[in-house]
Write a structure and sequence with these properties.
The protein is an alpha+beta fold. The protein contains 12 helices and 10 strands.
Length: 332
Amino acid sequence: MDNLVASQFDDFLRFSRLKLLQISLRGELTSLRPRGSDFLGWRHDNRPQFNFTDHFLQPNHMTMKLFLKLLENKDYVEEYFLWKSAGGDLSLPMPCFFRLVRTPKKEQNILVFVRDGEESTQISLPANEKRWIHQARYLPGLIHNINGPLGTVMGRIELMQYKHPELNELDELIRVGYRLQAILDNVSFKITQEKYDRPTEINFNRFLREELTFLNCDLFFKHQVEKVSEFGENIPQFRARYVSLSNAFAECYQFFRQFVDEQKEYVFILKSFLTGTQVGYTVDFLGEFLLEGRGGAVLPVTLEGDYLELARSRIPGLDTYYLCLCMADHGA
């Protein structure tokens, strides 16, 4: 690094999709690299308006004294933090690398390597899992293509039942047809709700009911898990992005799913509650679990706190940053 000239260092930062901020202990933004770049609306021309206390410390509920204390045990800090943009908006948690350095004038400055805001929210998948995206993309069309013929078949069977009430076998065909229609309605409801990239009115108990039903597409969950639901009463509707709620629910289920023995039976207890103005749900997944999962994941785990604390928890095998993005969508 020391041998890189300024232009080469800027090229390295662009290649790494990083921004480098240099901040004085007085809280001034003295440098922003790569040259000519933009970080949350902060640029070379408006950097005099940047204040480390207002635009970093306060959003993270810290003082300069507390921040410098983080650097006492080691000479760098690697963590997720919030920033306030030039327009006054709060960012999502962003991965940052802080280090104290001395300038040629022997003054201490804070160096910050930070991932660009847009880059830090990108979710990547292993190449061998891309197929799931391509398969799921055509699910709405698949449901449409099934619904048409199913409606025709059901109509014909009901007409035959009307003409031949003595044929008891038709009753079973109609019951199976309704079950199939209910499965398609569940998937269709989920797809329709998740396509809206903005907050909509959420009936929380229905959301949980539909998500619980959808999990039956996992054959282990359908055949090996006893489902118990206890939904609270008088839970008011609220505005949220359905897809964020759904993805957070699914991400947590998939994490615990890796610890099951598919030959054994389990109990899944889902409850909704209203405490004051707080709406939420609890899950009790009961049974005999493996202690180790994939990617170093182990039990037990504890998930708690707001979306920033969740991003920092870094639980092996659980995409806590993805959960953080889902929760941040509705201020959880």
